């Protein structure tokens, strides 16, 4: 296990220095977007890249140092592995059925209709139906975040909460934006 963790850190270190094209010692949105690609070699979308920078940028400067980038690197490896596990047809996209199975493995008991709605919402316009890796990460991370907000309010763990609209917006804004 230690060897694997060390090799992950070495890979993250090498990738950081490759991605840091301006040699500032930090990765910004532009550099991250240029470095991350989907299986069809398309760049990751701005929303997902910005979301990941916001998740790992502890200084709130809009950029990541090597330490933050290493955490992002490990995060990306886990999401990529899960994506590849459920992209059974190797199309580079997750279908509604594949997304449903991935979410079930993650512990979400959501309807097939909801999974299909997510796929329709996050499929690229004019592209093949399905969610690419960048949008898969975005969907799953947002789902985790919203679940965390829900659980904080569901203190009796009934699966039901009562909150007003502003409380809902506050939870969403502070976690997703």
N-to-C span: 35 Å
Mean pLDDT: 85
Rg over CA atoms, rounded to whole Å, is 17 Å
Q: Give the class from helix and strand content and strand pairing.
A: mainly alpha
Strand content: under 5%
Q: Could you name the key traits of this structure?
A:
177 residues, mainly alpha, two-stranded antiparallel sheet, 8 helices, EF-hand-dom_pair, cytoplasmic vesicle, cytoplasm, calcium, membrane
Structure description:
- The chain has 177 residues and is mostly helical.
- Helix content is 63%, strand content 2%.
- It contains eight helices and two strands, in the order αβααβααααα.
- A two-stranded antiparallel ribbon has the order 1-2.
- α7 packs across α8.
- The longest helix is centred in the middle third of the chain and has 21 residues.
- The protein is globular, with a radius of gyration of 17 Å.
- The protein starts with a helix and ends with a helix.
- The N terminus is likely disordered.
